Amino acid sequence: MAYMNTTTANTTSVFARIGGAFEGLATRYKQHRLYRETFDGLSALSNRELADLGLSRSELRRVAWESSRG
C-alpha cells in the first residue's frame, strides 16, 4: 500500500508582510482622516441644519464612523 503526503509551505516573504502592514496602516489613516473630516463638517452645522438632515448631535460620531468605513 502506498501513501502520499502533500505539504505546502506558507512562504510569504518578509518584505510582503511588511508591505501588507504598511497597506493596513495607510488604509486606517485614510479612514481616520475621512472620519475627522465628516465629523468636523457635521459638527459645524447648526442644530436646525442637523434637524433638517434628520440628525441630532448625539448621532454625529456614529454617522461619521459609518461613512468612513464604507
Concise structural overview:
With 70 residues, the chain is mostly helical.
Globally, the shape reads elongated
Q: Which oligomerization state do the chains in this entry correspond to?
A: single chain
Secondary-structure element order, N to C: HHH
Low-pLDDT sequence parts: none
Mean pLDDT: 92
Q: Give a count of the beta strands, DSSP E runs of length 2 or more.
A: 0
Distance between the termini: 56 Å
Quickly count the helices: 3
Helix content bin: 55-70%
Largest sheet: none
- SS-based class: mainly alpha
Strand-residue proportion: under 5%
Radius of gyration: 23 Å
Observed structural traits:
single chain, 70 residues, 66% helix, 0% strand
Describe the protein.
Helices cover 66% and strands 0% of the residues. Helix 1 (14-43) runs antiparallel to helix 3. The chain has helices at residues 14-43, 47-52, 60-69. The chain is built from three helices and no strands. By secondary structure, it is mostly helical. The chain is elongated, with a radius of gyration of 23 Å.
Explain the layout of strands and helices.
Blueprint: H1 14-43, H2 47-52, H3 60-69
